[in-house]
Amino acid sequence: MKNIFLFVITWLQEGFFVDMEWDVKKLTANQKRIADFIEKMGKQILYYSETELAETLEISNATVSRFWKQIGYDNFKSFKAALKEKEQISPDNKLKNSLLQIQDQELQIHEHLLSITKSQLVNTLQEIDYEKFNKAIRLMSICRKIYIHAPSSSEGLSILMKHRLARFGLEIELLPKSGHELFESLMHIRKEDVVFIFGFVAMNREASVLLDYAKRVNYKTIILTDLLISDFQENGDYIFYTNRGELWEFHSMIAPTFLVENFILGIGQYLEKQSLENLEKLSELRKLYKEQLPKLK
């Protein structure tokens, strides 16, 4: 299959990545949060104190202290020393990081948004496994039906997916966001189906049920999440990370929308003949009934 990312990001800067192997099964819920934060912060974690890390994540200092031994280090200091061996941080990089932290005081809103959006998109692309991405596209293209679980702020993305993918002739159902209503849909999901889950911030109870039931019925799950370390990695089939900003920032939906649009384009490309035929039929219907159902201006 052709690679659908037909562009070059010229503003990609050389970065620093923690690049650790995390044994998620051995981590507690709070330890997973710490690991996720470290992965997202990259080299900036070197400028944190243990107390600042605890305050940022709103957990105790004792919890943070125990974390280092759990991952094989005596303390935070030895963990930092190991990271510094991988990457020597120069004075100009330190200055650059400081300037980035205060630049929002100098920029207009649109300039600041453009700046952080670039960073979020680059980070999202860096984390994509393109082989898995193409497999997920094929899976959604040939399955019997796609069910989408989209709680809270991700609801708009689910509506976008349903609207666009239905045009290609795919059967899409938006799952109830919460509560017992989920059972009414759950009973109809088959092994030939795909469940697409938006999992931002944390795994909710409904997502947990959907992933557990997948093991019983053998349907496939695709997860779009803003967590690098979480229970999704253990339980989902295809997990894709999207950067929505730091914990203390406004959580943007630009990078998630970008990734969703790429899924849509990828499926349209995979089902090219079917997609074009359906879009041509849509155009014909619009022409046929343009007097009775004029386009709203």
Would you write up a description of this structure?
- With 297 residues, this protein is an alpha/beta fold.
- It folds into 2 domains: 24-101, Arc Repressor Mutant, subunit A; 128-285, 3-Layer(aba) Sandwich (Rossmann fold).
- 52% of the residues lie in helices and 8% in strands.
- It contains 13 helices and 5 strands.
- The chain has helices spanning 29-41, 50-57, 61-70, 76-86, 91-102, 109-126, 130-142, 155-167, 181-186, 205-217, 232-235, 254-270, 272-288; strands at 146-149, 172-174, 194-199, 220-225, 238-241.
- It has a 5-stranded parallel β-sheet with strand order 2-1-3-4-5, with helices on both faces.
- Helix 6 (109-126) packs across helix 12 (254-270) and helix 12 (254-270) packs across helix 13.
- The longest helix is centred in the middle third of the chain and has 18 residues, at 109-126.
- The two termini are 39 Å apart.
- The relative contact order is 0.12.
- The model is unreliable at 1-16 and 88-92 (pLDDT under 50).
**Separation, N- and C-terminal Cα atoms:** 39 Å
- From the spread of the alpha carbons, the general shape counts as globular
Tally of extended strands?
Answer: 5
CATH architectural designation of the largest domain:
3-Layer(aba) Sandwich
* Structural class label: alpha/beta
CATH superfamily of the largest domain: Glucose-6-phosphate isomerase like protein, domain 1
Q: Provide the β-strand percentage band.
A: 5-15%
Number of helices: 13
**Which sequence of SSEs, written as H and E, runs from N to C?**
HHHHHHHEHEHEHEHEHH
Keywords: DNA-binding, Transcription, Transcription regulation
GO molecular function, one term: DNA binding
Protein name: MurR/RpiR family transcriptional regulator
Organism: Robertmurraya kyonggiensis
